[in-house]
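Give me the fold.
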Amino acid sequence: MKKLCLLKFSALGDLAQIEPFLPSLAKKHKITLFTSLLGYEYYKTSPYIADFIVLKSKKIHHLLATIPKFWNQFDYFVDMQGNDRSKFLSFFARAKRISNYAKDFKIVSIPNSLKPYIAEQSVYHVDIYSILAQLGITFDFLPFQRKEKTYIVLNCGSSPKWTSKRLPISKWQEIANIAYEKFQLPFILTGEKAECAYIEEVANAITYPNTVLAGKTSLLELKDVLTNAFLTISTDSASLHISSVQKTPSIGIFGPTSWIYAKPFGPWSTAIYDKVFYKEGKPPIKNRQEVDAYFDAIDITPALKELESYLN
């Protein structure tokens, strides 16, 4: 079995996006994940990761300290980050290097059979699929397993700096009304600890049974909550992407960010946007942090219809 070092840092949502590809990769390779402390926390229980190299910080002495751990230890060094830091590290790897920035990197066409899973416009998915193809690995999916009717997650937050992603309280009320009328399930509200005040407002406005877990779970506990949900309805956030890669039916609500670039994973997930605000159906070119009326005409009903075969 070949030894492979997979380098991936970045934000939590980006880290989660490689998860569906790990079973295929692990069939032929012993994987060491070269990642941040956040990536280690997310993947430390993964059965597909044999070992970790953890970068403690971006400081140069921490970068240099990792070099002896990988420079002559692997058959392949796969850089899935593609920034200056990862380029610097990959320079020292005495292995076959594959990256998503090299001039000879090939964007492999997505087969029609995989297009429901991998959006060709989504940079989250195409890069890792192309790398698997270059390694001669067939991308196999574990079958979808229908979720038990447990609870519905409303992930209301994203982060304190992204107040532009927050829906009006009245819109969360409307969403809860539609979801409860259809499924009669309680709600769990999630989000960052720093957003608790806003999320508590949402919880108080919802008249149906609900529990606020924002800021009360570890990363693995949050992952477990999302894995065991019947349905997740979320802003564009890490929780949306964690939910979708766990094969939980997920509805991503997009406003100031691109529903094409950041489309959630799998045919059991979908992305919606305000078709009145974006009359031409084109997402913003750049993510927008200014608060605007992005969500006034958001309606989850068509999304529920689209995911009906996964929710019946």
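Residues 124 and 260 are 10 Å apart (CA to CA).
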